[in-house]
Amino acid sequence: MASVGPSAASTQPALPSGPAVFKTIPYAFILPEILCGTWVWILVAATSVSLPLLQGWVMYVSLTSCLISLLLLLSYILGFHRNSENWKVLDSLYHGTTAILYMSAAVLQANATINSEFGVNAPLNYQLNSAASFFAFLTTFLYILHAFSIYYQ
Hints:
Marvel; membrane; structural constituent of myelin sheath; transmembrane; MARVEL-CKLF_proteins
């Protein structure tokens, strides 16, 4: 007689929904990702853009990832995932891809910061670009943490 053990689905942790999203690692990283990403595009928008191609990419990545992360957070809070394993794969792929894109944006923002050290309104633009670079690298780190923690969960 074969013994009946726990199925593979029952050994996997359940995906959180509702307020439990804010208490569960890696899903608790979504709100700080949104907040830090929002700071990136606010700070870049506050500067006088001297390199539109570089900072345009930073704005695109930060704004797009902020909006998609907000939609992902809302879908977790409202329970659209219905505890499907596909959501973990989607979440891991999204955060991994976004971490790579955010790393490129953070490096470009750091380059824009270096280039804004001299010029019109240099002290103010340099401070705003420095803060945007800091938050871009911090957001990149949060996306990396989220991607790896969901992958190893």
